[in-house]
Amino acid sequence: MIDDLLHFSGIEHLVFDWNGTLIDDLDLAVFAVNRCGEHFDVAPITAAQYRAKFDFPIVNFYASLGFDFSRTPFPIIVQRYLEHFDANVAQCRLHDGVIELLAAARRAGIGVSILSASHCDVLQQTLEAKGLRDCFEHVVGLTHNHATSKAAEAVVLQQTLGTPAARTLFVGDTLHDFDVARSVGWQPVLVTTGHQDANRLRRSGAVLFDGLGELLTRFSPDDMRVIELGEA
């Protein structure tokens, strides 16, 4: 729990996670997991069960659902998942507040980028489909489909930004996002509208918001460079 107001002063850059943070793809992810389950004889899950178990590395998440890697190698399961997910992700809606938050950052002169565990090609294609590609200075995804950490990519992005790490605010929806942000010195905040439920996120001690709209209200109306985040 956060007892005191946290002051993020001098923010120069916003970095967003993509899946679950800016795009509302939870239902599609559950659908794709369950299609894999049908194919590999694993029981289906609900969205609530998904959010209670979802984690990085993704291989551990699939193991927790009952997938047997001795029968089916994990890369084959991931390929089956992506056949369903990648073909449909561009049809998912954006979360409420995305456009307003990006516009507010632009008015304040704050740079905006994306750091995602999605494959970079699919990420770029989805941004193009949503008309968002030009809204971001840097778009960083993975160059493989191994569903591993994006910590190494965060290090490279921080070097590319060339600004003090503490002046970057990272907005994500998972404990992995929280850990990645802290590993490079970014200020992390999490939204509870994505791939992990609020109870899990709260135990991390992260600053939580019920959505991007709530996060937007905490930005100073006159200058987004001063952000006051209260107890979530």
Characterise the protein shown here:
This protein is α/β, with parallel strands linked by helices and about 230 residues long. It has 2 domains: about 5-25 and about 95-230, Rossmann fold; about 25-90. Helices cover about 40% and strands about 15% of the residues. The chain contains 10 helices and 8 strands. The chain has helices at about 25-40, 45-55, 60-65, 75-85, 100-110, 120-130, 150-160, 175-185, 200-205, 210-215, and strands at about 5-10, 15, 110-120, 140, 170, 185-190, 205-210, 225-230. The strands form 2 sheets. The chain has a 6-stranded parallel sheet with strand order 4-3-2-5-6-7, with helices on both faces. The chain has a two-stranded antiparallel ribbon with strand order 1-8. Helix 1 packs across helix 4 and helix 7 (about 150-160) packs across helix 8. The longest helix has 15 residues, at about 25-40. The radius of gyration is 17 Å and the shape is globular. About 35% of the residues are buried.
